[in-house]
């Protein structure tokens, strides 16, 4: 299957900024003409090392022109950023390295921030919050940390209520999380481990995958997880040593390696040997109707060695961008999957348009 958006049809716009970007996300738009980007920024040159969430507008006809719409100052550097959409508002959730969680509600019309509710630091986790994820309707958030805690936070109109769903007491560290359904979510952590949780089953994960591949030992960290809405039985993970793999709940004993570590019987095409910071299913590169349900759908990745690419099971990876610095995060526009935005370590963002 050919991947659209090759070098001949790819437009790249690089926008230098004055601050470091920890994470970024497309904000769900009110219409096809309104486009907003959420940036979690960190200013190391300021006296207070200030952090903030900024919402910028842009037009597809002139993507090099970002216009600041609104901003919110964060009490600490942001560790994870997610967005969702309620009936009348856009929801922005951010966790921090100091352990606090913040939920912002922005107006759909102009993306102005109208309200903010928080859970204070040291309430959910001991130390930083590694990752959060928000359900599609914005009603509940999951947070995980290297302290081994898994928390569920319910988002109300004027407050956040939270409960400790699991605590490993430090025996397991969690670094990534992703909702699969209103009752199920996945987490990832050290040793390329993955866990599948079901709120209807208390006491621990419903299923677990440990990275002991080909009867050897596998050390590494899962940095990012994604789950396709139409194939919730398959979890994609990206982590250390350029590793991208799928865990299929129907066949749980071995991973499906797409890139990176290849041991014993596992063979894969490798594009990067450094950390894979983020993975997302790439619907623009998928032709779901012609693909077998046993085949992993195409996945976009970004890496510490500056690669943004699409990887597919059994195929050579398609490199979309190669930068002289790390690409720390990216996001695919759900309304326009041909458009991708990514953050560069050298205080810049890049906007890619695949025609």
In words, what does this structure look like?
This protein has a domain at 219-355: 7 Propeller (Methylamine Dehydrogenase, Chain H). Helix content is 0%, strand content 53%. The protein has no helices and 28 strands. 45% of the residues are buried.
> Percent range for helical residues?
under 10%
Overall pLDDT score = 87
Structural class: mainly beta
CATH architecture of the domain at 219-355: 7 Propeller
Sheet having the most strands: 4 strands, antiparallel
**CATH fold-level topology of the domain at 219-355:** Methylamine Dehydrogenase, Chain H
- The level 1 CATH classification of the domain at 219-355 is Mainly Beta
In whole angstroms, how far apart are the ends?
A: 17 Å
Strand-residue proportion: over 45%
Q: Count the strands?
A: 28
CATH superfamily of the domain at 219-355: YVTN repeat-like/Quinoprotein amine dehydrogenase
Layout of SSEs?
Elements: E1 10-16, E2 20-27, E3 35-42, E4 51-59, E5 62-74, E6 78-85, E7 89-96, E8 101-107, E9 113-119, E10 131-134, E11 140-144, E12 149-155, E13 160-167, E14 174-179, E15 184-189, E16 194-198, E17 207-209, E18 222-228, E19 231-239, E20 244-248, E21 251-259, E22 276-281, E23 299-303, E24 307-311, E25 318-322, E26 327-332, E27 339-344, E28 348-354
Antiparallel strand pairs: 1-28, 2-3, 3-4, 4-5, 6-7, 7-8, 8-9, 10-11, 11-12, 12-13, 14-15, 15-16, 16-17, 18-19, 19-20, 20-21, 22-23, 23-24, 24-25, 26-27, 27-28
């Amino acid at each position: 299957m050919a991947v659209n958006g090759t070098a001949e049809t790819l437009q790249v716009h690089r926008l230098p900024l004055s601050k470091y970007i920890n994470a970024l996300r497309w904000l769900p738009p009110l219409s096809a003409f309104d486009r907003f980007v959420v940036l979690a920024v960190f200013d190391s040159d300021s006296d207070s090392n200030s952090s903030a969430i900024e919402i910028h507008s842009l037009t597809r006809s002139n993507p090099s022109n970002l216009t600041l719409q609104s901003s919110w100052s964060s009490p600490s550097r942001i560790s994870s950023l997610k967005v969702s959409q309620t009936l009348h508002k856009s929801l922005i959730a951010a966790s921090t390295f100091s352990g606090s969680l913040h939920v912002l509600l922005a107006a759909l019309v102009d993306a102005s921030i109208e309200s903010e509710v928080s859970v204070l630091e040291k309430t959910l986790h001991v130390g930083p919050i590694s990752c959060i994820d928000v359900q599609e309707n914005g009603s509940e958030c999951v947070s995980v940390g290297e302290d081994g805690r898994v928390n569920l936070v319910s988002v109300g109109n004027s407050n956040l209520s939270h409960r400790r769903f699991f605590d490993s007491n430090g025996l397991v560290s969690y670094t990534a999380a992703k909702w699969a359904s209103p009752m199920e979510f996945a987490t990832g952590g050290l040793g390329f481990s993955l866990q599948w949780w079901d709120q209807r089953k208390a006491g621990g994960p419903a299923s677990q995958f440990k990275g002991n591949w080909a009867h050897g030992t596998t050390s590494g960290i899962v940095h990012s997880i994604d789950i396709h809405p139409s194939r919730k039985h398959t979890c994609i993970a990206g982590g250390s040593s350029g590793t991208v793999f799928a865990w299929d709940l129907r066949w749980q004993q071995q991973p499906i390696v797409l890139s990176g570590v290849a041991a014993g019987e596992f063979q894969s095409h490798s594009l990067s040997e450094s950390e894979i910071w983020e993975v997302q299913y790439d619907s623009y590169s998928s032709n779901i109707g012609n693909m077998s349900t046993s085949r992993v759908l195409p996945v976009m990745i970004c890496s510490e060695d500056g690669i943004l690419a699409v990887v597919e099971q059994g195929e050579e990876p398609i490199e979309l961008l190669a930068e002289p610095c790390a690409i720390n995060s990216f996001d695919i526009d759900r309304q326009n999957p041909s458009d991708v935005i990514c953050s560069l370590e050298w205080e810049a963002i890049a906007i890619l348009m695949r025609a």
